[in-house]
Structures are given as structure tokens and as C-alpha cells.
């Protein structure tokens, strides 16, 4: 049974721009899926609709057997960890507190206002920090860490939710190549060892080819490829990155 079922969802913004054409996809448990495409292809829009950060204009989304609706939003979001391009940490707070906020998805809303955490929460946060190799940074301010370390904190925060899936929106776009490899390797390791599905949006072809079990190619809001990395030929890659108004130019991060 698919973990996530996306049925004919689309997204049209108020300026009439159609960011995502009607799209039907399924995401399987424990699979590392990369959504690949150029800037403006609709990758972030697709991820944000899955997480409920954007309301689709048409269609429906089912997460772990439950349709995503305003009434089910909190319960469904608890199963979906989110990792952001710009980390989305509270810089003035220490690393431990940032990770602990992942536990609040399973708590009444008022606990998030008061930062109320239990012993079990701290144990879970310590485990998550150990999982990403940052136990020695637990009590440092988040804004004192390097970019790669901050992204690891973001991953630990997602793990503290005990999610079924982690959505990673351009998780390495602001990182150097070596750190990018480390972060992608960590996400793959978590997918394999913790049995958590990962859906990562990328524009770096080399990383997608190396780490993905499955690649979904988006171009101008439409799925133009959906297969294993070995099936992504140079012709198909051109289709993924082809623009209407300019010559093909492959976007490869170095």
C-alpha cells in the first residue's frame, strides 16, 4: 500500500499562474525518491502541497491511509518531517531546543507556546542528535553552527517527529559539494536504517543519480519522467531540463 497517494492535484496561484498541472503519483514506504528539475519546475510546490503548506487547487492527497483535509491536517503533518533549504531553525535557541520542537507535533497546541518537554522528549532528541552526529553541539546556539551542521539539526528535528516520511526541499542547495554529499548520504542512511521514506527535491543531477531509488522529473509543472536513475538517459534528461524560451542547458552542480 502506498504511503502517500497524490490524485490529480494541481496548484494555480491567484495571479493565474499554473505552478503544478494535474498530477497523480504514489510514494512507497522506505523509498528514497528525488524530484528533479530546473528552478521553477514546481518541485517545491509539489512538496508543500503534500505537507499541507499549500492548498491544492484540485485533487486530493492521502497520507498513510488518511486524506489530507483541514480537520486531519495536524495528525497527518505529524507523520511528515520537513527539511528546508534554509534550515528554518531558531538561531537564538540552542540545538537541543530546536530538535525538541519536533516532538511538539504529537502534543496539544499550547505546549508549543510554553516549550513544555518531558523526559521522554529529551531522550528522543538525544537519540536524534546522536543519529546525525551532533550530540556534542546540543547546548550551543543554532546560529553558531556551520551550514552543514545546521542542516543536520534540521534533520534531527524531523526525526524527533517520528515521521513516516521526510520531505526535503532543496536540502543541499546552500551547501558546498562535500557537505552536500554528506547530507545526502545521511538522508539515505536514515531512509535505509530507520525505514523512513525520503522525498527530496533537487536540481543537481549527479546527486539524484547517486542517491535516488526513484527519480520524478518535473518540467513546467508537469511530470515528464518517473523511473529509476538507470533509465534517465541523456535524451530524457534534456526533456526534464528543456525550457520553452531558451536552448537546453543542463544544470549540474559542481
Task: Give an account of the 3D structure.
The protein has 254 residues and is of the alpha/beta class. It has 2 domains: 1-79 and 165-172 and 197-245, 3-Layer(aba) Sandwich (Rossmann fold); 85-162, no CATH class. It is 33% helix and 23% strand. The protein has helices spanning 43-50, 73-77, 95-100, 109-114, 119-131, 147-159, 177-194, 205-211, 234-241; strands at residues 4-12, 18-27, 32-36, 58-63, 66-67, 80-83, 165-169, 197-202, 214-219, 222-227. It has a 6-stranded mixed sheet, with helices on both faces. The chain has a 4-stranded antiparallel sheet with strand order 2-1-4-5. Strand 9 (214-219) and strand 10 form a beta hairpin. Helix 5 (119-131) packs across helix 6 and helix 6 (147-159) packs parallel to helix 7. The longest helix is centred in the last third of the chain and has 18 residues, at 177-194. It is globular, with a radius of gyration of 18 Å.
What secondary-structure arrangement, pairings included, does this model have?
Layout: E1 4-12, E2 18-27, E3 32-36, H1 43-50, E4 58-63, E5 66-67, H2 73-77, E6 80-83, H3 95-100, H4 109-114, H5 119-131, H6 147-159, E7 165-169, H7 177-194, E8 197-202, H8 205-211, E9 214-219, E10 222-227, H9 234-241
Parallel strand pairs: 3-8, 3-9, 6-7, 7-8
Antiparallel strand pairs: 1-2, 1-4, 4-5, 9-10
Helix pairs in contact: 5-6, 6-7
Amino acid at each position: 500500500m502506498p504511503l502517500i497517494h497524490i490524485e490529480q492535484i494541481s496548484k494555480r496561484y491567484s495571479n493565474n499562474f499554473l505552478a503544478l498541472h494535474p498530477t497523480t503519483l504514489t510514494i512507497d514506504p522506505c523509498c528514497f525518491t528525488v524530484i528533479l528539475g530546473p528552478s521553477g519546475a514546481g518541485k517545491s510546490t509539489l512538496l508543500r502541497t503534500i505537507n499541507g503548506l499549500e492548498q491544492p487547487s484540485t485533487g486530493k492527497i492521502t497520507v498513510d491511509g488518511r486524506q489530507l483535509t483541514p480537520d486531519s491536517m495536524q495528525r497527518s503533518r505529524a507523520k511528515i518531517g520537513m527539511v528546508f533549504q534554509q534550515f528554518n531553525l531558531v538561531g537564538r535557541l540552542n540545538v537541543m531546543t530546536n530538535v525538541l520542537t519536533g516532538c511538539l507535533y504529537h502534543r496539544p497546541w499550547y505546549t508549543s507556546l510554553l516549550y513544555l518537554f518531558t523526559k521522554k522528549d529529551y531522550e528522543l532528541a538525544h537519540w536524534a542528535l546522536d543519529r546525525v552526529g551532533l550530540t556534542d553541539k546540543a547546548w550551543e546556539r543554532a546560529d553558531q553552527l556551520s551550514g552543514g551542521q545546521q542542516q543536520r539539526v534540521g534533520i534531527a528535528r524531523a526525526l524527533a517527529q517520528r515521521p513516516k516520511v521526510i520531505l526535503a526541499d532543496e536540502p543541499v542547495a546552500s551547501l558546498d559539494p562535500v557537505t552536500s554529499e554528506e547530507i545526502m548520504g545521511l538522508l539515505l542512511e536514515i531512509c535505509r536504517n530507520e525505514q523512513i521514506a525520503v522525498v527530496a527535491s533537487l536540481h543537481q543531477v549527479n546527486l539524484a543519480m547517486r542517491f535516488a531509488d526513484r527519480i520524478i522529473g518535473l518540467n513546467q509543472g508537469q511530470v515528464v519522467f518517473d523511473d529509476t536513475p538507470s533509465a534517465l538517459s541523456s535524451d530524457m534528461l534534456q526533456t526534464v531540463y528543456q525550457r520553452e524560451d531558451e536552448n537546453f542547458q543542463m544544470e549540474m552542480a559542481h
